[in-house]
Amino acid sequence: MxxxxxxxxxxxxxxxxxxSHRLPHAEAAPPPLREWAGLAPHRLKRVLGCIEARLAEPxxxxxxxxxxxxxxxxxTRMFKLATGHAPHKYLTLRRMERARELLATSDMPIAAIAAxxxxxxxxxxxxxxxxxxxxTPKVYRVRxxxxxxxxx
Length: 152
Hints:
Elements: H1 41-53, H2 61-67, H3 72-83, H4 87-105, H5 110-116, H6 122-133, H7 137-144, H8 147-150
Helix pairs in contact: 2-3, 4-7
């Protein structure tokens, strides 16, 4: 009786695509990469528009999330990926930016500016503003008034 000679095993290889199933345009270009992270651009635009429209009002994360039909938890994570800030932090930063604009360009009383950017009291606004800007609203206004506006 003769012993069979062992056949060497072929190394495992990844399966090759069947050429006949390839579409003619498949080689044209790779699919475009997403240029955004987190919220889709149309959702982010909608939420940012909502924030801008409601700077003077209390805004809850759950309300922003419902604007784009997401849970508050998932929305918060996606918003942070898209903007680099949690929703509450972004809202505060945006309010402070608007307050700086108003302080530098208008004669509105500080209490009115506080209300215009969503703060119930001038004291609360002053504390938050000082933390973010390094100066109280009054000091900021004096330092950042433009010369043409000071004479008015």
